[in-house]
């Protein structure tokens, strides 16, 4: 048995001689120094996955071990880990509304089925890995596709789209896994861009996009990409398709490709607080 360690914050109240533990879904106070030290250890060592046997080496006896696990699960610090693999799907399908990407991907992967985005909307697929590349990118289209993802939970999805003069590659998402969905990924990008605004007169990309939405209620972003701009995307996907099972912890990794320097910035996708995919 393995447990996923969910994000949490620790606040020490010295005057009260107690500690507050906060997660996304709950908060509680404790004076249990052993528990506090254990949570500090997990945090300091960036441990996000722990096994039952690992826990046995920490706790003195079976009774205290099980009580501690139950407590951590009930308070949303631990959740039961779901095995996540890419290799047990029937095939990889790639869909795009961009002819340059389709042409390059077809040339690179002769053994994969690479189709227009319209074919995804017209047909139903199950138990596949589905890669969706959008250029131009439209948030309304992303919302529609995210809804389709939830309707076919046996599939695994990954999205690619240009935004803010970069190309973004999402994590692998499955409704069955309950991990961050495509909208979580996009809205985290939005939040980061809004947070980078440095003054009233210095409009950044996201503020300009917001003005377009306010003006017309919709906005479609064309990255104006050449075929060579997609090469970094092809290389990244090719590496991911060859991931061994032991690398399944990389499933929630996301990537930003800067179109001016082609530098790669990796991160991890987390649930967006307003999204219902975490419920």
What fraction strand? 15-25%
Portion of residues in helices?
25-40%
Q: Can you count the beta strands?
A: 15
Provide the CATH superfamily of the largest domain. Answer: NAD(P)-binding Rossmann-like Domain
CATH architecture of the largest domain: 3-Layer(aba) Sandwich
The biggest sheet amounts to: 7 strands, mixed
Overview of this protein structure:
- With 279 residues, the chain is an alpha+beta fold.
- It has a 7-stranded mixed β-sheet with strand order 8-7-9-11-12-14-15. A 3-stranded antiparallel β-sheet has the order 5-1-6.
- Helices cover 34% and strands 24% of the residues.
- It folds into 2 domains: 2-80, Outer Surface Protein A, domain 3 (Alpha-Beta Complex); 92-278, NAD(P)-binding Rossmann-like Domain (Rossmann fold, 3-Layer(aba) Sandwich), CATH 3.40.50.
- The chain has 9 helices and 15 strands.
- Helix 4 (99-108) links the parallel strand 7 (92-96) and strand 8.
- The radius of gyration is 22 Å and the shape is globular.
- It comes from Lactococcus lactis.
- InterPro entries: McbB (IPR030956).
- This is McbB family protein.
Write a brief structural summary.
The protein is α+β, with helices and mostly antiparallel strands and 279 residues long. The chain is globular and about 60 Å long. It has helices at residues 33-44, 52-56, 62-74, 99-108, 117-122, 139-151, 182-195, 205-216, 231-241, and strands at 2-5, 8-13, 18-23, 27-30, 49-51, 78-80, 92-96, 113-116, 129-133, 137-138, 156-163, 166-169, 220-221, 253-258, 264-268.
Considering the chains and any ligands shown, give keywords for the structure:
McbB; single chain; alpha+beta; 2 domains; McbB family protein; Outer Surface Protein A, domain 3; 7-stranded mixed β-sheet
């Amino acid at each position: 048995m393995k447990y996923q360690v969910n994000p949490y914050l620790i606040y020490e109240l010295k005057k009260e001689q107690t500690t507050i533990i906060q997660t996304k879904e709950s908060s509680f106070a404790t004076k249990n120094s052993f528990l506090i030290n254990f949570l500090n250890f997990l945090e300091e060592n960036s441990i996000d996955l722990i096994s039952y046997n690992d826990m046995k080496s920490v706790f003195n006896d079976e009774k205290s071990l099980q009580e501690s696990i139950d407590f951590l699960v009930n308070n949303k610090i631990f959740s039961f880990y779901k095995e996540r693999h890419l290799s047990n799907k029937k095939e990889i399908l790639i869909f795009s509304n961009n002819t340059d990407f389709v042409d390059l991907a077809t040339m690179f992967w002769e053994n994969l089925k690479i189709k227009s985005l319209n074919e995804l909307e017209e047909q139903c697929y199950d138990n596949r890995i589905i890669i969706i590349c959008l250029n131009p990118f439209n948030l309304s289209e992303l919302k529609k596709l995210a809804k389709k993802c939830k309707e076919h939970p046996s599939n695994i999805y990954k999205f690619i789209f240009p935004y803010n003069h970069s190309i973004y590659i999402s994590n692998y998402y499955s409704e069955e896994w309950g991990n961050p969905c495509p909208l979580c990924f996009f809205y985290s990008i939005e939040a980061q861009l809004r947070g980078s605004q440095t003054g009233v007169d210095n409009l950044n990309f996201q503020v300009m996009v917001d003005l377009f939405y306010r003006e017309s209620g919709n906005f479609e972003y064309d990255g104006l990409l050449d075929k060579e701009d997609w090469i970094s995307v092809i290389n990244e996907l090719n590496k991911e398709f060859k991931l061994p099972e032991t690398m399944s912890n990389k499933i929630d990794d996301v990537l930003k490709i800067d179109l001016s320097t082609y530098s790669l910035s990796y991160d991890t996708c987390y649930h967006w607080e307003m999204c219902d995919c975490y419920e």
